Amino acid sequence: MFGNITKLFRVFRSLPAFAIYRMSTARTIVDADIARWQKVGETDKHGLGAAFFALTKKEEFRSVLYYRMPACRAFAWLMGRGAPALYLNTPNIGPGLYLQHGFATVVTAKSIGRNCLINQQVTIGYRGFDKAPHIGDNVSIRAGAKILGDVTIGDNSVIGAGAVVIRSVPPDCVVVGNPAVIVRRNGVKCREAL
User: Fold this and answer.
1) What distance separates the 2 farthest-apart alpha carbons in the chain?
2) Over 60: is that where the pLDDT of 171 sits?
3) Which residue from 133, 181, 178, 135 is spatially nearest to 156, judged by alpha carbons?
């Protein structure tokens, strides 16, 4: 009985934000985020069902929605806040953002491109007063990685779990370690300093 009441409460608390999403001019970019969530397997629902599912069940998605649509922030107290200890402080995030387990994650970049995947306990942030990273398109940032300072992460790159990146990463590279080194460039194994 209490399980049904909890489900019903989740549905009702999500209705205001869902209505704002339906009327918002930012809907196309949120739809791209939803499509990304579908692609990675977070939901098998489609259309409005996928949006409503993500909004009611996924804290990280709610955090992205609050970021995309400031009007939804007014309902944050009603819906329950987004993911615990997830901070999105980036002026420009491209469509298709996917936050997997956003716990203890800080995202403070100058810009993030399309289809970025960010795992838990990632820190993207300042190194110095105003030196924040630029993240390219189709970048994956794995659990516990740190990207600090005025660096550029090239398109289609992967930042490995626990990597510490304080220098720019070229496109199409995989970097790991502390300090980070390139272990794959354009699909070919290598070992190069950044």
Assistant:
1) 59
2) yes
3) 135
Alpha helices of the chain — where are they, by DSSP H? Answer: 2-23, 27-39, 47-57, 59-68, 76-79
List CB contacts of 167: < 8 A, sequence separation 6 or more.
Answer: 151, 179, 180, 194
How far apart CA 66 and CA 37 sit, in angstroms, is 16
DSSP assignment, residue 169? Answer: B
- Of 121, 173, 179, nearest to 152 (Cα)? 173
Closest CA to 107 of 58, 60, 156: 60
Geometric angle at alpha carbon 109, from 17 and 130, rounded to 5°: 125
Q: What angle do CA 180, 186, 187 make, to 5 degrees?
A: 90
Q: Which residues have C-beta within 8 Å of that of residue 143, sequence separation ≥ 6?
A: 101, 119, 120, 121, 122, 161, 162
- Statement: the pTM of the whole predicted model exceeds 0.85: no
